[in-house]
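Intended use. Records such as the Sulfatase N-terminal domain-containing protein entry shown here are meant for training and evaluating sequence-to-structure methods. They are not intended to support clinical decisions.
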Amino acid sequence: MRPRTTTLLGILVAGAAMLLGGQLVTPAGQAAPGEIPAPARPDARPDIVLVLMDDFSLELLATMPNAQQMAAEGAVYDNAFVIDSLCCPSRAALLTGQTPHQTGVLTNTPNDLDHPIGGYRAFAANGNAERQFSVALQDNGYTTGFVGKFLNGYETGNAGGRVLLPPKVPGWSTWNAILGGGYNGWGYKSTYLDEAGDVQLQNHPKPPRDSSVADLDRAYATNVTSRKAVQFLEEAEVGDAPYFLEIATYGPHSQLQRAYPDSPQFPSAFADRAPAGDPTGGSCGTRPCGALTLADLVGYDDPRDDNAPTYLHGGRTEPAPAWRTNDISLTGEQALTRYRDRARMVQSIDRLLAKVREAAGPDTYVFLTSDNGFHLGQHQLNGGKGTPYDSDSRVPLVVVGPDVVPGSRHQFVNNIDLAPTFEELAGLRPKRFRSGRSFAETLRSAGAPGARYAFFEHTYAKSQPGEVDTDEGSGGTIDIIPSYVAVRGERGLLVRFDLDSSWQGTEHAWELYRYDVPWEDTNVFAEDHDEPWVRDLRRRLELYDGCAPAECRAAAR
């Protein structure tokens, strides 16, 4: 590991103006006139790693021993949320520090190829690639790497029987994107950049099912991601430039197609699987798999009769039609099986985390989070995500690194806050078009000022071919969730749904949940909508709706 001054204070000092007390001050490492120049110091800016999981629900964190060790050593944000609890809009927002209404990435699929509203097509069409935080870091001397899942729809094409390679994405020195076959765990392709900097493909064939466990798991997507990440770190550690690495796992998202006939809906590495006929066996990390119960899923099977939204006409309220109309098809046995399989699935991610931390060393900031949460029977919504509720919108956020003071943080953080935080840690002033707020100061001071509110937005769109979250295991109810804008504070969650599914019309109705209970059990908007704290939430929601970057930041204060 190369020597490096990595304190935030050191970064600020190194980049400070050279005037002090009216006298010219020679920058550190630079000789004064007439002196022999000293050897150049290594770049003082810190290395940064982001580990981004997929569909990770918060109860799984307790099963991961290395993640628990990381939490004991670092900062744990207990009010960390995502701007939209759906994969592609959330990832686009994280990469740009902008809201979905600013990125134009509203869904997972284009919906309209000429005017895409989702997936990689919308990301590229709206100029988001150039606004990634990685571009700012790379332009300022960082070596940047990406390994794993990028955005839905970033795939190969076909023209007259000829395979078209996926496009090069700016801002990344190393580009190891694993394409959509990674959802299934085995049998997929990944990208790399050749010596000319052009995108090329690497094939990762699926081993025969009767291969050894070691051979099967060597080809498992999470393990391949781990090896590529460690390779990047080992090469970057001996270089002079600081680095940023994003590691985006496919786990614990469900498979789209079975890689093998006996693959469970959430396919873990074979080393972690339960033996045939023993549903309580296998590896669930810190706990026996049999000790995981539906009681861990807070709010599981909570009746939804008292969750219907409420109209507000002037000062008068009246009931609005319920939108949670899905058949309750997920049985308790299925929910428990999938919960345990997901716990088995994250064990390979936990081992990845240990290898990454070892390769990166203690002077590297390591962030652990997810693109969204996941419900498995909470709200009687079967399995999936996309709602503003705690199961879907709250994610883990754990950070270790130099100057990080261990302990809990209660400030509100949204995933649009990551981009400006990475920029500030790298010694840059966050771009003015970022709608998020840097929380870098809270890493070294748990009580530092921070946001007091988090916002959410989601756009309803009829699922189109290529939508990855309509399968029963990973979604199944995404089509019934209306568009909404929401705000969450310490006391509660306020959601304004649009019950009109057309693009032109609106039919607003409200849900309000107090957090004197640990989940969204009863809509109390009719009783509490005129309370001062609720009026404050409504004012902030109106400020956020369609906000420009500075307005978005102000609304969260």
